[in-house]
């Protein structure tokens, strides 16, 4: 709700550009008439899955000191697939769906 109010009522910094991993949000559901324009860039689902697999192990330069959930796991993505690991399972290809579907439980 705070995000919706920020985007629709904040006048000092308009027009605004918000970027990042933001799932679709129906602003009218919160009683707002003004709605943002969404532009989603979709990666190849396999490339996205491989990237996420390694992100959980090595992170990025944004927060280099943060300890990742799978940090220290040196298994390659290919090795994960060969051994039937859960981190590389085909079900993980749905990671991008919420960015189009929204915050409903069935989207996640």
UniProtKB/TrEMBL annotation:
This is Heparan sulfate 2-O-sulfotransferase 1. Its main location: Golgi. It is a single-pass type II membrane protein. SUPFAM superfamilies: P-loop containing nucleoside triphosphate hydrolases (SSF52540). Belongs to the sulfotransferase 3 family. It comes from Ilyodon furcidens (goldbreast splitfin). Keywords: Glycoprotein, Golgi apparatus, Membrane, Signal-anchor, Transferase, Transmembrane, Transmembrane helix. The gene is HS2ST1_3. It is found in: Golgi apparatus membrane.
